[in-house]
Design goal:
5 strands, Gyrase A, domain 2, alpha+beta, five-stranded mixed beta sheet
Length: 93
């Protein structure tokens, strides 16, 4: 199964977050992980890699990098996950 992760909005963060994310996914899934520009592709055998499992791993990565308050993971289309920046609303006084 092939799952794509659109992480284009993570480019705003300092450091090489996309490379760290790809390494994290490779380590946790032991699947083939490739990076192309702003997209990461996870290819695994059978049920070893599911869309839901990759979503959980993405949430764990954001939590470890202290980015969970700024970003969320949404399922975009078939076998596509997207890292979206959260809309932060200011409290009205």
């Amino acid at each position: 199964m092939e799952i794509k992760v659109n992480a284009s909005e993570l480019k705003r963060e300092k450091g090489d977050v996309l490379k760290d994310l790809a390494d994290f996914l490779k380590e946790k899934t032991s699947a083939n992980v490739t990076t192309a520009a702003e997209e990461i592709t996870v290819t695994g055998e059978g049920d070893a890699v599911t869309k839901k499992y990759v979503k959980v791993l993405l949430k764990k990565f954001l939590h470890q990098q202290t980015l969970k308050e700024n970003y969320r993971i949404i399922m975009d289309e078939d076998n596509m996950l997207k890292v979206k920046e959260r809309r932060l609303y200011e409290e009205q006084e």
